[in-house]
Design brief:
Shape: elongated
Structural class: mainly alpha
Distance between the termini: 94 Å
Number of domains: 1
Number of helices: 7
CATH topology: Ferritin
CATH architecture: Up-down Bundle
Number of strands: 0
Length: 180
């Protein structure tokens, strides 16, 4: 007579543990998606920026404290990654919740305006249009920080370097407008 292996309670328990860990398995994928979204926005904005830097932008009079051109790429990449981590910290709370949906909408709006600034300033060679767009961007970033703070304080704090850099960009934008 052959004996059938018994299904122990530990086997059932392990299956249960596996089922409970599925959200943890999906979290890295969600994190990657959340980081990819702002990085892709950066790529979109770079279509307007890259061709203008060696031509139009190179011919502009720059204000004091203008960072070297090589610094912008690493800074923006870092900021986009921080934005993605920030978005992840909010979205993982559940998009079924109204505050999270509000966060995502405001985040998407500021990201779209971020891309728009690149096209306004670099693509259209217009510091005045860039200034109008960047002022809207500042308001939207502050709104994003406000809404994110209601869901995750850490998510909001991760956006502080972003608003700081955009304030520097605003100074540069204003000065380029005045000097040129």
């Amino acid at each position: 007579m052959t004996s059938q292996p018994e299904v122990s309670s530990s086997t059932t328990h392990n299956f249960s543990d596996l089922h409970m860990n599925i959200p943890k398995i999906r979290s890295p994928i969600l994190l990657i998606i959340c980081i990819a979204v702002p990085l892709l926005a950066g790529v979109a904005g770079s279509f307007a920026t890259m061709s203008a830097i060696p031509t139009w932008y190179a011919g502009l009079i720059k204000p004091p404290l203008t960072p070297p051109n090589w610094l912008f790429g690493p800074v923006w990449t870092t900021l986009f990654i921080l934005m993605g981590i920030s978005l992840y910290l909010v979205v993982r709370e559940g998009t079924d919740k109204q505050p999270v949906r509000q966060c995502v909408m405001v985040f998407a709006a500021q990201l779209a305006v971020n891309i728009l600034w690149s096209f306004a300033f670099f693509g259209f060679h217009s510091p005045s249009a860039g200034l109008a767009v960047i002022l809207v961007l500042i308001v939207l970033i502050l709104a994003t920080i406000y809404f994110f703070y209601r869901v995750s304080r850490t998510a909001a704090l991760l956006l502080v370097p972003y608003i700081a850099w955009v304030c520097i960009a605003t100074y540069l934008n204003v000065m380029v407008l005045i000097l040129n």
